[in-house]
Amino acid sequence: MEFHTYPDRDMMMLRVSQRIAAELGETLRSADRATLSVPGGTTPGPVFDTLSGADLDWSRVAVMLNDERWVPEDNPRSNTALLRRRLLTGRAAEATLVPLYARTPAPEDALDALSDGIRPHLPISVLLLGMGADMHTASLFPGADKLAQAMAPDAPPLMALRAEAAGEPRITLTLPVLRAALRVHVLITGAEKRAALEHARKLPPEQAPIAAMLDHAQVHWAE
Ligand SMILES: O=C(O)[C@H](O)[C@@H](O)[C@H](O)[C@H](O)COP(=O)(O)O
Predict the structure, then answer these.
(1) Ligand 1 proximity of 137 Cβ (cutoff 6 Å)
(2) Nearest CA to ligand 1 atom 9
(3) DSSP state for residue 192 in the 8-state scheme
(4) What is the pTM of this model?
(5) Which of 79, 82, 131, 135 for a ligand 1 pocket mutation test, highest count of atoms within 8 Å of Cβ?
(6) Distance in Å, CA 66 to ligand 1 centroid
(7) Dihedral in degrees, nearest 10, Cα atoms 124, 128, 131, 136
(8) Which of 16, 37, 86, 95 has the fewest Cβ atoms within 10 angstroms?
(9) What is the ipTM of this complex?
(10) Domains, the chain
(11) Measured from the CA of 40, which atom of ligand 1 is nearest?
């Protein structure tokens, strides 16, 4: 793991977006297509704001979430809506959104169709992850009902999970898909998450799922 500390959040968001743009650009120089996977939640918005203006051939970029809350796009907790509003706009409006949500009552109803949609876009070229103070990443929550299956080496690419801390049901990329990403960045802010990340490194991954992603990760932190 490489740990990068920034003087403030603005600087971090700018540098991380520049870094992601550069890595997508590198990928597109040697391949026809690139896949970017990003978290939802409250942290990455400013990265999206800058990244959406990057000078890239976005028409060759597929964008998918790490995970989604099972709520329609008009719900303020929809990660898909966040992506549309702050990343798939400006130059990045040319990118292809690979959906992690469908209007079905439960995520299980849409799992097969959504999984078929993501397979052609794997492996992920550039993965940006967030982390909760409980050490979850994507929707791999400690204590989630299907956490062990989602972290197993033979997990399908996408799974539906439920966890008390998650609120609504979730759909998430599984650990093998996340670990197969070619470049991994983790974006965290604040003292609580920094301490949680340090703690995670001493725990088994089923108690601290982020720990399973740290070996090749670049971690970016600002107060
Ligand atoms: O949908 C989600 O909740 C995310 O994808 C999730 O994994 C997120 O990255 C962390 O929960 C951190 O969230 P915050 O940035 O809001 O703290």
Answers:
(1) yes
(2) 130
(3) H
(4) 0.98
(5) 131
(6) 9
(7) 0
(8) 86
(9) 0.97
(10) 2-222 (3.40.50.1360)
(11) 5
